[in-house]
Design brief:
By secondary structure, the protein is of the alpha/beta class. 20% of the residues lie in helices and 25% in strands. It is built from six helices and eleven strands. The protein has helices spanning 9-12, 34-43, 62-67, 83-91, 101-113, 176-179, and strands at 21-24, 48-51, 71-76, 95-98, 117-120, 134-137, 140-146, 152-161, 166-167, 185-194, 213-216. The N and C termini lie far apart (56 Å).
Length: 233
């Protein structure tokens, strides 16, 4: 059994360089690879392209990379709660490629599966389809979308083993699974790392073949973008 465990986040992100393209899992602030993002901020790499559903908030997660002007281009489905993302996009400081959410997920999954492209009806007849090949199937028009190409995928899982097998929890099982194996190198940070063989095979969401490096993260904040509670009666 191949041991894919690395000792810390520094070893996990070894090889990242300016100008690379990264996939980063999570939905808003849920299930984001907090430790990996913090290390990218510390390293000060710049001119990177980030593929993520959104950029979270101003002072946490990808928002920190945006604040430091380390991101050249964001590929996302929406701006979200990040005022700095909006400001940089409207001012022209940041290149932004807005993609329908389902298409963004499928572009990750296609890369994971080794498909170069796929047809989708989403975006036909809009700016999303400009310059792209279109084709009719059974009387309905579709847009040809290329799979993503990226250097690193940074994902967050609840539990994993030293062979790279992963289990996600709750809403964190969003874009994270689709990004595993969708880049040249997939780095998984987990809340709990166990020896190979300890996970129930029937509970594993992503097999270790899609993961190159795994480490146990620490000090997770797990922030909530907008806390909503039921008022007392």
């Amino acid at each position: 059994m191949i041991n894919k465990k690395v000792n810390n986040v520094q070893e996990a992100v070894a090889g990242v360089k300016d100008g690379m393209t990264f996939m980063l899992g999570g939905f808003g602030l849920c299930g984001i690879p907090e430790n990996a993002i913090a290390e990218l901020v510390r390293l000060g790499i710049k001119d990177v392209t980030c593929i993520s559903n959104n950029a979270g908030v101003d002072d946490f997660g990808l928002g920190l990379l945006l604040q430091n002007k380390q991101i050249k281009k964001m590929v996302s489905s929406y701006v979200g709660e990040n005022d700095e993302f909006e400001r940089q996009m409207l001012s022209g400081e940041l290149e932004v490629e807005l993609t329908p959410q389902g298409t963004l997920a499928e572009k990750c999954r296609a890369a994971q599966a080794g498909f170069p492209a796929f047809y989708t009806p989403a975006g036909y007849g809009t700016e999303v389809a400009e310059g792209k090949e279109t084709r009719e199937f059974d009387g309905k028009m579709y847009v040809l979308e290329p799979a993503f190409k990226s250097d690193f995928s940074f994902v967050k899982a609840w539990k994993g083993d030293t062979a790279g097998n992963l289990i996600f929890k709750g809403t964190a099982r969003n874009f994270n699974p689709n990004m595993c194996g969708a880049s040249k190198i997939t780095v998984a940070e987990v809340e709990e790392l166990v020896p190979a063989g300890e996970l129930d095979p029937n509970q594993i969401h992503i097999p270790g073949i899609f993961v190159q490096r795994i480490f146990q993260g620490e000090k997770y904040e797990k922030r909530i973008e907008q806390r909503t509670v039921t008022p007392k009666s």
